[in-house]
Amino acid sequence: MRCTLNHPKAKYGIPIFVTRLGRVLSDHEGLATVLKLTDMTSADLAAKCNVSVKTVSGWRSGKTIPVATLNVCGQILTRWRYNNRPKKEVDFADSYV
Predict the structure, then answer these.
(1) In this structure, are residues 53 and 71 in contact, taking their beta carbons and an 8 Å threshold?
(2) Residue 78 lies in a domain
(3) Does residue 94 lie in a domain region?
(4) d(C-alpha 68, C-alpha 82), whole Å
(5) HEC secondary structure over the chain
(6) Domain count, the chain
(7) Would you say residue 96 lies in a domain?
(8) pTM reported for the whole predicted model
(9) In this predicted structure, what is the pLDDT of residue 12?
């Protein structure tokens, strides 16, 4: 999953959530998925965005999410993907040649 501007449905500089298979998620679906993937709570996201937990709860229930928050979610996803990328297996035979 990613939060991107490089998609035909991302208009006016507003990022969208896209699954690995290319399905576009609504903002509240994407936000819920980000929290689930990264094991974050609403309180964690609220702290990162400098808003109240009640505001994050509103976003999760379908209220409009500000672009700045979508950008924060994109950064969170990027870090999560980097930290959870598959480790490259080393062939010891190659390292001694």
Answers:
(1) no
(2) yes
(3) no
(4) 21
(5) CEEECCCCCCCCCCCEEECCCCCEECHHHHHHHHHHHHCCCHHHHHHHHCCCHHHHHHHHCCCCCCHHHHHHHHHHHHHHHHHCCCCCCCCHHHHCC
(6) 1
(7) no
(8) 0.75
(9) 85
Do the domain assignments include residue 49?
A: yes
Whole-number Å distance between alpha carbons of 31 and 42:
10
pLDDT at 54: 94
Q: Which domain holds residue 74?
A: 2-85
pLDDT of 89: 53
The CATH code of the domain that includes 48 is: 1.10.260
Write out pLDDT tens, residues 6-64.
888 888 888 888 888 889 999 889 899 888 888 899 999 999 889 999 999 999 888 88
Position 38: which residue type?
T
Residues 6+ apart with CB under 8 A from 36: none
